[in-house]
Write a structure and sequence with these properties.
The chain is of the alpha+beta class. The protein has one domain. It contains 5 helices and 13 strands. It has a 7-stranded mixed sheet, covered by helices on one side. The protein is elongated.
Length: 310
């Protein structure tokens, strides 16, 4: 006679299992901005600097003997004021000992680094750069800022050519932007650095209008660069004006003019404008991560800009 035995697992004392190691760490994407890629950068700026500007008045007279002097050369200055900002973090590796991240700690009992330190630094750098991008456009001394950003300077009161718009649609975007491109002063209309800055929303609308309306190859668009979203741009149809979106503009405002007339002062060696440092502090047994940046904005020859202010 055969007997059957039933063996069942008793798992009542075991908690649910979820694998927590062996995976790449995910990190939310942060767009650091693109303004510093196009404007004229002045490096090694500390505090306030004054950039000399020269202008010669040429007066023609009838040819004659003698030397009757006419005209003048005037030297003025453009002031770049800056802000100095910082972020300081303190991470204690010991806090990770009782978590799944303990497997990523170094051997021994003194932990002189934290897991994914390079990713943390990259994240801090990107988020700091984003704040700089926003400040370059939106900082305003009237609201307590330490300098006036591009939007505060590019106004009718300061000499910019201004216009208004109720907003872009895929049906009117080409007409509206094209109308304001006609207002670019002739003296700078030939330049190869003319830019029309706008919000990402208006940029997408303008791009859709170009796709929808152009039956000829009148505009260029680098789909390869646009795929990763890091450098969206296209040349306005039959013009020499580059259309660029920026996070610094979130409404219907648009600004058109020479990119190299827009100045940025930074105290760093690259376009991130941010200096990072990470080190182990033996006296406190922690890893410290710091970021500092000095940055500011100015605009030269504001009268050569078109500002669509609303």
């Amino acid at each position: 006679m055969k007997k059957k035995f039933n063996f069942d697992y008793d798992v009542s004392a075991i908690t649910g299992y979820a694998k927590e190691t062996g995976f790449d760490v995910l990190m939310k994407e942060v767009f650091a901005g693109n303004t510093l890629q196009y404007v004229k950068i002045y490096p090694d700026v500390k505090g306030t600097i004054k950039v000399p500007v020269m202008d010669t008045e040429l007066v023609l007279t009838d040819a004659s003997c003698g030397w009757n002097s006419t005209g003048d050369t005037t030297v003025t200055q453009v002031t770049i004021e800056t802000c100095a900002k910082q972020s300081k973090m303190e991470l204690c590796p010991q806090d990770l000992v009782d978590t799944f991240l303990s497997e990523s700690l170094s051997r021994g009992n003194w932990y002189e680094s934290v897991p994914y330190e390079e990713m943390i630094l990259a994240d801090v750098s990107q988020k700091f750069a984003k704040q700089i991008e926003l400040a370059l456009w939106n900082e305003n001394k009237a609201s307590g800022g330490c300098f006036n950003g591009y939007k505060a300077q590019l106004t009718a009161a300061n000499g910019a050519i201004t216009g208004t718009t109720s907003g872009l649609t895929s049906d009117n975007a080409l007409d509206i932007v094209g109308e304001y491109l006609q207002l670019i002063p002739v003296d700078v209309s030939h330049r190869n650095d003319l830019v029309c800055w706008m919000s990402y929303s208006n940029y997408r609308t303008l791009l859709n209008a170009a796709r929808k309306s152009s039956q000829l190859n009148l505009f260029s668009f680098d789909a390869g660069e646009a795929t990763n979203g890091m450098d969206w741009k296209f040349v306005f149809p039959a013009s020499n004006v580059l259309c660029l979106p920026t996070m610094g503009i979130t409404d219907n405002k648009m600004y058109i003019g020479p990119a190299n007339y827009m100045l940025a002062g930074v105290n760093s060696v690259d376009q991130t404008a941010t200096d990072l440092k990470a080190f182990y502090d033996e006296s406190n047994d922690v890893v410290k991560i710091g970021a500092k940046a000095t940055f500011g904005a100015a605009v030269f020859a504001i009268e050569d800009f078109v500002a669509i202010i609303a």
